[in-house]
Design a protein that fits this description.
glycosyltransferase activity; Rossmann fold; single chain; 2 domains; alpha/beta; about 15% strand; 14 helices; about 375 residues
């Protein structure tokens, strides 16, 4: 969400639209940042004390939202959900006076993998529905996600589908120095599989490890940090994969670009609809890399692949099917090339951030016009 928001703000600025953002500070504690005077892209960062059940704890967020509205004086409030802090808009007169557009990135899924989320959602849902009721427009990121979303069911008449987008110019080609450093991770003669994403319950890294255990001709680099790192590290040892699988932890943007440049394909083996779209799929398109993705019912990730025709799909959680898909691509370099090229074309045709920003501006215009009817 963070990369998309930054690209969107930049595109809106370029198109002549003035925009500001309020986000959680990335460092826990009482850090806070206000925009520099004359900053072209005003970014407010509210203090964040940590996370509980993956949710940022930011008790002063309402004060910062009120301040941002007072100082920036927006005509419209664009709320990106899920984000429990955004519920502060319900209680602030300054926010309620503005028209709202809700950007629905994902449902708070009543997870079958982490049952605590189902209980937490019972408390969150009434406020979520109040927020949707107050909105003038809702942006969903794919047709299957909108169709499967129970939360959006009562508000279908105000929903518009606009996919996420990427600014290809932001994702720069890596330097030779970074490429050389990253190249040391790959071993010659093996299929080079890259996975990028938080090491968390729904990402399905365990499925990928089991699939790779049946493929002595493949290796995997996993980028990301998270609470499941110890479990995955132990699983790598138990499966005897230390020489073919590495957990790289968090990587810089330039390192990620180098990994995408040098890999043979990207794998996104997520398990449930918490994986709503998969921004990393657009990053793979930027580097013309094919993808292998789990076809999660009601998720936009499979829809992105089908729309771009840039990869293979497999049933979520099915490591044998994933092995089969990876083996197919391992022995078909021409197919990998064609799928990667399809992705690059799709990024330019369907997922360019300037086109996405233009579509969102149209939603703003309709929401503002609705208030004067």
């Amino acid at each position: 969400m963070e990369h998309f928001l930054w690209d969107l703000l930049q595109a809106q600025q370029t198109s002549g639209l003035s925009a500001a953002a309020l986000v959680h500070h990335e460092q826990p504690g009482w850090h806070r940042v206000t925009p520099d005077a004359g900053c072209a892209l005003p970014i407010y960062r509210a203090p964040c004390l940590g996370r509980v059940l993956y949710v940022p704890i930011a008790p002063t967020f309402p004060l910062w939202l009120n301040r941002a509205i007072r100082e920036f004086a927006p005509n419209i409030l664009h709320l990106h959900l899920p984000n429990s802090s955004a519920l502060a808009a319900l209680s602030l007169p300054s926010a309620r006076r503005l028209p709202w557009v809700v950007h629905w990135h994902a449902d708070l899924v009543a997870s079958q993998l982490d049952r605590r989320l189902a209980l937490a959602y019972q408390f969150y849902r009434p406020f979520e529905q109040r927020l949707l009721r107050h909105s003038r427009a809702v942006i969903a990121t794919s047709p299957p996600y909108l169709e499967a979303s129970e939360a959006l069911l009562p508000w279908r008449d105000r929903c518009t589908i606009i996919p996420l987008g990427l600014d290809a110019a932001r994702v720069c080609a890596p330097s030779a120095e970074v490429m050389g450093r990253v190249a040391q991770h790959w071993k010659p003669g093996r299929l080079r599989v890259l996975a990028i994403g938080r090491l968390t319950y729904y990402k399905g890294h365990e499925v990928l490890l089991r699939a790779i255990a049946a493929m002595p001709n493949a290796q995997v680099l996993i980028v990301g940090s998270g609470d499941r790192a110890p479990l995955l590290s132990q699983m790598i040892s138990d499966l005897g994969l230390r020489d073919r699988v590495q957990l790289l932890g968090s990587c810089s943007d330039s390192e990620v670009a180098a990994l995408l440049t040098s890999c043979d394909l990207l794998c996104l083996p997520s398990l449930e609809r918490t994986e709503a779209f998969g921004m990393v799929l657009l990053e793979a398109m930027r580097f013309a890399k094919p993808v292998v993705v789990s076809a999660i019912p009601g998720s936009g990730a499979g829809w992105v692949v089908e729309k771009a025709d840039n990869g293979l799909l497999f049933p979520p959680g099915d490591s044998a099917a994933l092995t089969k898909a990876l083996e197919h691509l391992a022995h078909a370099p021409s197919l990998r090339l064609r799928l990667g090229q399809n992705g690059a074309l799709a990024l330019a045709r369907e997922f360019r951030i300037d086109s996405i920003a233009e579509a969102i501006s149209g939603v703003y215009a309709e929401a503002l016009a609705e208030g004067v009817r």
